[in-house]
Fold this protein.
Amino acid sequence: MTYSRLAPALALVLSVTALAACGNEGDTNAVDPAASGEPSSTAAPTPVPEGQVRTRGLVTVLDAGEGPELCLGAIAESYPPQCGGPALVDFEFGDVGAEKASGVTWGQYNVTGTYDGTTFTVTDSIPAALYDAMAEPETGGLEPACDDATTTDADMASPEDMDATLAAAAALPSYATAWLSNGTISVAVTEDPEGAEAELRKTWGGLLCVTTVEKTDADLNEVNQELQAALGEQLLTSGSTSPDSLDATVVFDDGSIQDWADTTYGDGLVRISSALEPVS
């Protein structure tokens, strides 16, 4: 399943539906967000940076005829691309890196400046061709759920066996999610991991890990829907790339949105990252 504003997952996570922050549709309620079992009534904060900030790595700047915009969220895979974001002031595409087609100009840049919550005033920009990508940390995939996975029957480890096992996992009464990594199938359930493993061994003899989690995909989806309603246009992307957690990217967080998420949903359930970071 794909989502228009969902960032690429760090690993293949199966059956954890991630609703994108593309609007507020219908009434939403969090599932067991905090120890009290009730969602917080405190509104989400809307922090604005006091000093200069910069984009995390390269982002797309696009001008469709009404001035350049800083595309911090997802980008439609069209030609020319389509995206939107805060208006940019004092920005020039320069002599390298920009493309033009059908009246649209765009390119990838690392941008520094000030942001007032609506407009980004540029003090410096580096096109992709001149940007030191080696300075950016690498992100890895999701590891297997255990470090002692074993093979019970090498003759039951074909792609067809894998497909059958993933289907069997999704049919488990306590199924939460599943993912593939390093040739291992990892399956998370909310209860009875031994029974789940016994069932999955009927179709899979390869490397297998079964672990327990607290939240199902339905639980995470409900929290995700409340996130999109509470954060509104601040929320750029949201979804699950690992069990028992949601990853959400906002335009800017000084730590107050993360504090709000921890208070509202419980520590560690929602992990907030900021598309803009303060300049040291």
User: Anything to note?
Assistant: The radius of gyration is 22 Å. Residues 1-48+142-280 form one domain.
